[in-house]
Backbone:
């Protein structure tokens, strides 16, 4: 299994890599399951013949899913950031990723039903946060810190406030 890029993130699952990859590839355009490798022996995370590794593409970027067993869990130390063109994209990805057991966290972060952390971020947020007017950027940051899902209109209102 040779990834398409020099560095590829490997996501560790407890036997549900196929379900997770199927879900992720259904949410993002330009996504696919590229290769499935089954184990040739029993191993701590599964039995001979079970899915061991899946190479897949999400929005054009390669990933690897490993059915490694119950020994490791996802943490907030690593998250996947989704660059959203506008509020409609934020809303669509947020709804998909929080459905069926996903959990909203704060400031555009959520955990999906598999426990993986995601940041659903509209492009406008970093633009507003990097505004040369420090007071404006501060108001935007303060508004964002009060949000669960990012609301572009509220960010714009905070930026425009005097």
Residues:
């Amino acid at each position: 299994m040779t990834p398409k890029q020099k560095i590829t993130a490997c996501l560790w699952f407890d036997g549900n890599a196929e379900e997770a990859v199927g879900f992720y590839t259904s949410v993002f355009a330009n996504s696919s399951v590229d290769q499935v490798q089954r184990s040739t022996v029993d191993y701590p995370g599964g039995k001979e013949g079970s899915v061991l590794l899946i190479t897949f593409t999400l929005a054009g970027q390669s990933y690897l899913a490993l059915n490694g067993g119950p020994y490791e869990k996802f943490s907030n130390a690593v998250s996947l950031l989704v660059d959203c063109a506008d509020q409609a994209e934020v809303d669509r990805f947020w709804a998909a990723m929080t459905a069926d057991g996903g959990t909203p966290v704060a400031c555009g972060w959520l955990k999906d039903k598999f426990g993986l952390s995601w940041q659903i971020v509209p492009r406008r947020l970093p633009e507003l946060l990097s505004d040369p007017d420090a007071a404006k950027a501060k108001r935007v940051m303060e508004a964002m810190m009060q949000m669960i899902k990012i609301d572009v209109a509220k960010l714009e209102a905070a930026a425009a406030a005097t």
Summary: The mean pLDDT is 96. The chain has two domains: 1-72, 74-162. Residues 87-98 form the longest helix (12 residues). The longest strand covers residues 51-58.
